[in-house]
Every structure is written in structure tokens, then in C-alpha cells.
Amino acid sequence: MDGVKRKTSFLKHIAELISQNKTLVTENEKLIRQNEQLLQEIEKYKQQLDKSNISKKQINTDRIPKILKYKVSTVLYAEAQGFSEIQDDMDTNALVDNLDEIFLQLNTVIAKYEIKNLKTIGDTIMCVGGIPKKNITNPLEVVLAAVEMQYYIMDIQRSYSDSKIWKLRIGIHTGPLVATVTGRKKLNYEVKGDTVNLAARIRSFCEDGKIIISATTYEIVKDLFNCEYFGKLPVKYKGDIQLYMVKGIKPDFSLQHKGLIPNKQYSIRFGLIQFMDLQELILDKLEKELPKSLYYHNVKHTVDVVTQVELIGLGEGVSDEELLILKTAALFHDTGHTIGYDNHEYNSTLIAREILPDYYYTQSQIEQICNLIMATKLPPNPKDKLEEIICDADLDYLGRSDMIPVSNTLFMELKEQDKIGDINEWNKLQIKFISGHQYFTYTARNLREVNKQMQIDRIASLIDE
Questions:
Q1: Minimal CA–CA distance to 332: which of 319, 345, 321?
Q2: What is the pTM of this model?
Q3: How many other C-beta atoms lie within 10 A of the C-beta of residue 449?
């Protein structure tokens, strides 16, 4: 009997264990499913977090400002005057619309030039030349824009019968400034420094309908713009600042001598000044992209040819436009070496055609520049005075005292290109070439021709028979 009870008790215990085990298995399966769901949720949140972190990085990058420094920039403040002349019987809505129309047109004028319009607050526009693209011509562009602004204000006022109240005060100063740049797709510029503050002070000191510039700006623009002394502006810690009033473009550089619209001669003078920016761009390109094996056709050679075309050109009495075209052709004549050694003259014309339109060269000028580049191809066969000048400049070294060391760099370069044999062969070719060469221009013959026989004798002494 006791044995039956024990057996029954044992069976019940086994049944309970089986039941508990089933429950545990069920719970375990439930927990596994829950765990899988949690892992999926964790992965989902992890992906969202990664995206969020990327977004935060992007946002943080966007918010980190870039600080840019500019050595020469020109700040213009233009302030509309006329609110004090508004009378009770005037249509104020029409006046506001009139002012909006004026500011819209002023912004259109700014957009024509290399000028950055930074802000328009109420009745004041502030813009800067020389940012974000650095250039040496920014004072000229800003002052030219100011002349056009004032001309527009005077012109549009003639069409208003009852509301001729708006006038413009413009203050301009050139100097260094610091720009804080923010944003990613659209860059926002905030400028600060003494140059900005002084331009604002000059605007306040200005009279209605006038353009007042600082002495710094005046020194850069005085050759092209008609300016007269205006007065002194006392500035704390700086003393008195000399101010000048711009009356317009000088007659020789404006259409119909009215001082309002620049003529071709203005564009040429502007181009000669802008050439410094173009030269910096091209020399930097050559420095970075020319093969190191070019011992002769390097940056130094380009600088030499630019210098010589100017020297010979002035000696030959060329015009300002011809001088600009000569210097530009000399600057570009070896840029084709950045593409390849052979046919570099033609490749140079391709580079010139790509870059020069951005620097306001006309199509006619570009064609002339390309023809001059092609004229430097050996043997020289110039067809006009300008081609004679650039051919003489390109081979100027033949009559210089450093002819032999310069010639040796050309030998090393040709040797590297497998285009020449030994130094003896090279020296014999040099004697043959120099003996048959002649300078085309009177100026080059006077400067270099006298030394050529001496060069021949020196090279002959180096030849091993």
C-alpha cells in the first residue's frame, strides 16, 4: 500500500515536472521571440542613430565658420536719402514702391560686376569687391558701379513728376578685411574690420548725390576716374583721413566724354591692370602642372618672354591694346606644355581660348593672341610687327650673356625627350641656328644682335673635333 502511494506520488511529481517543463519551453520560446524583436528594434534604432549622427556631423560642419582674410577689398555703402522730404500730401505707398524699384535696379548694377552684395537693410546697401574671388581690380569695379548707381538715380528721377525726393549717398574705402563664411549650398559672408567701419563712416560723412572715396581707393582709381579733393575725416587712433569725390570717368576713357560709360580705351587700361591677376593664375598653373623635366620651358622662361615683349613693344611704339595682346600671348605661349611636349603651341591656344573670356577679352583679341602664340613655333616666320616682337622676345636669350647656360638647359630638356644626341651635336646645331638667325625688330637688334658673334665663338671653343 505504501509502495502504491509512493509510486502514485512519484508519477504526480513527474507529471508536474513535465507540465513545468512545457511551461518553461513555452516561456523560453516566447522570450526568444521577444529577444528577436528587441534585436530588430535595436538594429532599427541603431540605423536611425547612425543617420542622426551623420546628419549632426553635416549640421556641425555647416555651422563651423570659415575665416578668410583678404588683403585688398573695397567696401561700398549706399544710403538712400529722402525720407525727411516726404510731405503729408504725398502718396506714401507710391514712394515706398518707388524706393523698392530703385533698390532693385541698384542690385542689378552690382550684379554686373565682380562685387558681392552682402546686405540690404532698410535704406542702405552694403557690398564688397574682391571677395570671394581675390582680384586687384576690385576698387575700379566698385567705383564704376557707384558711378552707374548715381547716374541711374539721376536718370530715373527725371521721370517722376511729384516724387523727386530720392538721392543716394555712397561711401567707399579699400583695405584689408576678414570674412566669416557659413553655409553649405549657399555661402553666407559676414565681413568685419577697419575697412568696413571706415566705409560706413565715409558714407555718413557724404553729401546727398555724391560718391566719396578714401585716399586709399583714390590712389588706385585716379588714372581712370575724375576725382577732386573733398575734405578730411577725423578717425580715432588714425588721425585725419583724406577724402575725394568721384565726379565720373575721365573724358578720355568714357563714351562721348560724358564720364558715365567706359569706352574701349578704359577696357584696355583695365585689362592691363587685370593682367596681374591673370599672370598670377597662369604662373601658378605652370608651377603646378609643368613636368619637372622641362629645364628650359619653365616658369622662368615664361616670365622672361613676358618681360621682353613689353620691353621690345614699348621700344617699337605699340599701342596699349597691342601691348596687352602681346603680354597675354607671351604669358600663354608655353601653357600647352602642361598637356604635352609636341604641338604645345596649338595646345596653348586651346588653354587661352578657355580662360581669356572670363577676363573680358573680346573674340577678336583672343584670335590675335592665338595667332601670336602660333608664331612662336620654330623656325620663326613672323607676318607682322606684333609677331616679330614675340618671336624676338621668345629667342631673346641668343644675344644675352647667359646664353650658354640657358642653352644647356634646353639641351638637357631635349635629351630627356630623346630629341638630341650628345653635347657636341647640340653645340654644332646651336652654331648653325645662331648663324642663320636674325632679330626682326630694330629694338631687339640694338639690344641683342651685337653679342651673337661672340656667342658663336664661345660655343665653337666648346666643340670637340
A1: 345
A2: 0.78
A3: 14
